[in-house]
Amino acid sequence: MREEGRIRAICGIWTVPYGRSAPNDSGPLARVPKTLHLFTMTWFTGVVVYLLVWWTVLFCILPIGTRPVSDSNPADGGWRGTPAATHLLRKAIATTIVAGIGWLGIFALVESDWLSFRSGTFALPAP
């Protein structure tokens, strides 16, 4: 463990210890939690959300710029919807960039208090 007051990482969540300077457990700091979480999205959740966004964006980008083969013959194994050139590397790079931008937007939304189920308009009532 590092000394108090420094930022430490526990399971991908950055925590800052605070509220430990109270001499006893009574007073205003007694009800304050001992750690403050800086990020609510862990690294595992971030990777899962990125993969979901990446696959969704891939299926949106795949049909862009495809031209069907003009002389397709079903007897030869061709199909009228077969693309002449797939450009998969170009589409994978575009998917990665667009998914990264989308993931940053989702991360900003999750980390902000604008859309929160813990406080604000969408919060559940206290028991």
Automatic annotation (TrEMBL):
Designated name of the protein: DUF1467 family protein
Transmembrane feature ranges: 41-64, 92-110
Q: Which organism is it from?
A: Neoroseomonas lacus
Q: Which domain of life is it from?
A: Bacteria
Q: Which of UniProt's keywords are assigned here?
A: Membrane, Transmembrane, Transmembrane helix
A Pfam family hit = DUF1467
